[in-house]
Amino acid sequence: MGDLIIQLSGTAEGARLASILALSAAFLHAVFGALQKGRHDPWISRAAIDLSYGLMALPVALFLVPWPDPALWPVLLGAMIIHIAYKVAQALTYQRGAYTVVYPVVRGTAPLFAVLAAMLVFDERFNTVQWLGLGLLVGSIFGLAVNSLRKLQVGRDTLVPALAWAVATGAMVALYTTYDAWGIRQAADPFTFLAWFFVLDAIFMPLWMARSLIRLPRDQIGPLALRGGIGALVAFASFGSIMLATRLDEVGRAAVLRETSTVFAALVGWVILGEKVGARRAVLMTLIAAGAVIVEFAA
């Protein structure tokens, strides 16, 4: 399978598959976010998900994929450090600002930074029409934040630091997207990188939330374990899809398509969580999708 991914890289078939994978990652990312909502604290849910995917990935890493070359271990360690920094920045963002305001800022900042980083690292170039599409997508995502800000009643006193942390988190998303896209290229088999990434990435959050996990009432352990197991499977598919997309085709295009997750998140919230969308949000979601389509087909 790893050999097939490498063979398709840079081909027209690979580009089409990358687009499908990036859109799949966008949808699954929205589902992943929804799984962190519910009766448990989002960070306890995230710890359960991380622990689950670490335990699931360990036998795959040990027995089913080629062993990493010695030079790959520092690359994996770097990915682990960057993702820890991202998770901390994300936690600080959500502690200080309303989710509906700061989440679009994170997701709107990320593709812009990712495209700029891909220019530097992979020498990728957007044409004029693609930049216009990116501007439409990013501006519409920020529009979702402004729309939510208009209705914000509490938390305005921490809004400035929350937005600053949101931009920083968006930068971290772009950093890990670019770094991981580079890192997966350093592995002889892309699935070796993915398997060991999940093993190493599973360490931090369960340790950080260990006290909260230990103090959970016994009747909550089963539902949390189920949520963790389902979330782990979604995480495998979501992160694996976007990483393989960046291995097959341009990093910038994959990063832009992934940010249609804001559209899928709204749809998941509407259909599954019973949240209202509203006409203004519906228009902005349409413009986000239009921006992604322009970036994809103007290449």
Automatic annotation (TrEMBL):
Keywords: Membrane, Transmembrane, Transmembrane helix. Residues 18-144, 162-295 form the EamA domain. GO terms for cellular component: membrane. The keyword Transmembrane applies. Pfam families: EamA (PF00892). InterPro entries: EamA_dom, EmrE-like. The chain crosses the membrane at residues 17-35, 47-65, 71-89, 101-122, 128-146, 158-179, 191-209, 221-243, 255-273, 282-298. The keyword Membrane applies. This is Multidrug transporter.
